[in-house]
Amino acid sequence: MKEYIEDRVRAVAEYILASGATVRQAAKAFKISKSTVHKDATDRIEELDPLTARKVRKILKKNMSERHIRGGLATKFKYSLEHSKRA
Question: Residue 75 above 90 pLDDT?
Answer without folding.
Answer: no
